[in-house]
C-alpha cells in the first residue's frame, strides 16, 4: 500500500486564482504543502461541526492531516469515508452523507470538506447544496482532473442509472484547495486522465498554453512540481474566466466540453469504468479535431499535433470499435444535444472553439478514421 509522502519543509507560497461570481466568488489555492499550512484553512465559515467527506482510498492517505488542520477551527471534525469509484456516485451513497449529517445532528451551518477526486467532489457538493437547503462546502481535490476541472465552477451531481451526472445542481464552493503534493500518490493512469483536461484548455482558449504543455509534457508526466503548479494554475485561470462569464452554461461554458461528446460515447458504450473519463476526453479531442479538419475549420496538421501530444501524455487516441451507428445513438442523448441534433465543440482557430452540428455521414467518416 502507498503511504502519503511527508510534506516538504520549504514549500513555495501558494498561488491564488480568483473565481469572480459576485457574492459567490471564491479563491483557488494552488501549491505544495497546503494541507499542513494553517493559512490554508483560515477565514472559512465558522460552525460547530466540520464534516470531511472522502473515500476509502483517500482517507488513509490524507484524512488525518486534514482533520488535524481543521481541529483548531471547529469544535467537532468528523470523517466520512465512502466507497471508492464512479459506480458509487449514486443516490444510495449520497444518502449516506445525509445519514451522517442527520445522525450527528449537524445544523445548517455545518461545513462540508470534499477530500478526493471528482467523484467525491461532485457528490459532496450536491449534498451541500441540498442539506437543509444548502450548507457551505470546500473542495480539497486530490486528483489532477479534480484540481484542473471538476472542483472549479460549481457543477455538482450524482449519476442516475439512465445517465451520468443527470441529477445535480449549480452550487459554488467557499474555497478550492489544490495541494500538488497529493498528486504524488495518484496512479499514473489517473495522472494521464487529468492531463487530458489540461490539454483541452489549449485548443479552446490559449495557443501559447498548448505550446507550453508540449514543451513540458515529460516534466508533467514525471510530476515535476513547478510544471504541475503552472499547469494547474493556467487551467484554473481559464476555467475561472469561462465560468465567470457563463456560470450556468447558457453559452460559452459549453466549450469546456471539447472532446467530451465523443468521449462520453466511449465511456458509456464500453460501460462506465472501462475507460477513465479523461481517457475518453483525450481520444474524444482527437476525434473532435478530426471533425474540425473535415468541416474545413482547421488544417490536418492540427489533428496530428493534438494526437501526438495525447500519445505523449499516455492517453489512448484510437476509439473502441463500437460502430458508427452506436456512437451516433449514444451522442444523441448527450446533455448538449438539442432535439436529437448532436452539438459538437469544434475548434475554428487555435485558441477558439464553438458549438456546431455536422452531417451524420461526416461524423461517420471521423469515426471510421479514428477507431
Ligand atoms: P475519481 O474521483 O474517481 O478519482 C480517481 C481515483 O483516484 C479514485 O480511485 C480515487 O479514490 C483515487 N484518488 C483520488 N485522489 C488520490 C490520491 N491523491 N492518491 C491516490 N489515489 C487517489 O475520478 P476523477 O478523475 O478525479 O473525477 C472524475 C469525476 O469527476 C467524474 O464523476 C466526472 O463526472 C466528474 N467531473 C466533474 C466535473 C465538474 O465540473 N463538476 C468536471 C469533470 C469531471
Ligand atoms: Mg471533463
UniProtKB/TrEMBL annotation:
Record-level GO BP terms: amino acid biosynthetic process; aromatic amino acid family biosynthetic process; chorismate biosynthetic process
UniProt main location, coarse: cytoplasm
EC number: 4.2.3.4
Any one Pfam family match given in the protein's UniProt record, by short name: DHQS_C
Binding sites annotated in the UniProt record for Zn(2+): 197, 260, 277
Ranges for domain 3-dehydroquinate synthase C-terminal: 194-337
Residues involved in NAD(+) binding: 84-89, 118-122, 142-143, 155, 164, 182-185
PANTHER family, A to Z: 3-DEHYDROQUINATE SYNTHASE, 3-DEHYDROQUINATE SYNTHASE, CHLOROPLASTIC
Domain 3-dehydroquinate synthase N-terminal: 80-192
Molecular function via GO: 3-dehydroquinate synthase activity; metal ion binding; nucleotide binding
Catalytic activity: 7-phospho-2-dehydro-3-deoxy-D-arabino-heptonate = 3-dehydroquinate + phosphate
Keyword list, A-Z: Amino-acid biosynthesis, Aromatic amino acid biosynthesis, Cobalt, Cytoplasm, Lyase, Metal-binding, NAD, Nucleotide-binding, Zinc
Top-level class of the enzyme under EC nomenclature: lyase
Cofactor binding summary note: Binds 1 divalent metal cation per subunit. Can use either Co(2+) or Zn(2+).
Keyword presence, Membrane: no
Listed pathway(s): Metabolic intermediate biosynthesis; chorismate biosynthesis; chorismate from D-erythrose 4-phosphate and phosphoenolpyruvate: step 2/7
Family: Belongs to the sugar phosphate cyclases superfamily. Dehydroquinate synthase family.
Gene source species: Sphaerotilus hippei
GO CC aspect terms: cytoplasm
Highest taxon of the lineage: Bacteria
Cofactors that this protein relies on: NAD(+); Co(2+); Zn(2+)
Name used for this protein in its record: 3-dehydroquinate synthase
Amino acid at each position: 500500500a502507498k503511504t502519503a509522502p511527508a510534506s516538504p519543509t520549504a514549500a513555495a507560497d501558494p498561488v491564488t486564482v480568483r473565481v469572480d461570481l459576485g457574492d459567490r466568488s471564491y479563491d483557488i489555492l494552488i501549491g505544495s504543502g497546503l494541507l499542513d499550512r494553517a493559512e490554508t484553512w483560515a477565514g472559512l465559515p465558522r460552525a460547530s461541526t466540520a464534516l470531511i467527506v472522502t473515500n476509502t482510498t483517500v482517507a488513509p492517505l490524507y484524512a488525518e492531516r486534514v482533520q488535524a488542520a481543521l481541529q483548531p477551527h471547529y469544535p467537532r471534525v468528523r470523517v466520512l469515508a465512502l466507497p471508492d469509484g464512479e459506480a458509487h456516485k449514486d443516490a444510495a451513497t449520497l444518502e449516506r452523507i445525509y445519514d451522517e449529517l442527520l445522525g450527528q445532528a449537524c445544523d445548517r451551518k455545518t461545513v462540508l470538506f470534499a477530500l478526493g477526486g471528482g467523484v467525491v467532489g461532485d457528490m459532496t457538493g450536491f449534498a451541500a447544496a441540498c442539506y437543509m437547503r444548502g450548507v457551505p462546502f470546500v473542495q480539497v481535490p486530490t486528483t489532477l482532473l479534480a484540481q484542473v476541472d471538476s472542483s472549479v465552477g460549481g457543477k455538482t451531481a450524482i449519476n442516475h442509472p439512465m445517465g451520468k451526472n443527470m441529477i445535480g445542481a449549480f452550487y459554488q464552493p467557499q474555497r478550492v484547495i489544490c495541494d500538488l503534493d497529493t498528486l504524488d500518490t495518484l496512479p499514473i493512469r489517473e495522472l494521464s486522465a487529468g492531463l487530458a483536461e489540461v490539454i483541452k484548455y489549449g485548443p479552446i482558449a490559449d495557443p501559447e498554453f498548448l505550446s507550453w504543455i508540449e514543451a513540458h509534457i515529460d516534466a508533467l508526466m514525471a510530476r515535476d512540481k513547478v510544471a504541475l503548479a503552472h499547469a494547474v494554475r493556467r487551467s484554473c485561470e481559464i476555467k475561472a474566466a469561462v465560468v465567470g462569464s457563463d456560470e450556468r452554461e447558457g453559452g460559452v461554458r459549453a466549450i469546456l466540453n471539447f472532446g467530451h461528446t465523443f468521449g462520453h460515447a466511449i465511456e458509456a458504450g464500453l460501460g462506465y469504468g472501462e475507460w477513465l473519463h479523461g481517457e475518453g476526453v483525450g481520444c474524444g479531442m482527437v476525434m473532435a479535431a478530426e471533425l474540425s479538419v473535415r468541416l474545413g475549420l482547421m488544417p490536418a496538421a492540427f489533428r496530428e499535433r493534438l494526437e501526438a501530444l495525447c500519445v505523449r501524455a499516455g492517453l489512448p487516441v484510437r476509439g473502441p470499435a463500437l460502430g458508427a451507428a452506436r456512437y451516433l445513438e449514444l451522442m444523441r442523448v448527450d446533455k448538449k444535444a438539442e432535439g436529437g441534433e448532436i452539438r459538437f465543440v469544434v475548434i475554428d482557430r487555435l485558441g477558439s472553439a464553438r458549438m456546431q452540428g455536422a452531417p451524420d455521414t461526416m461524423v461517420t467518416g471521423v469515426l471510421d478514421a479514428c477507431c
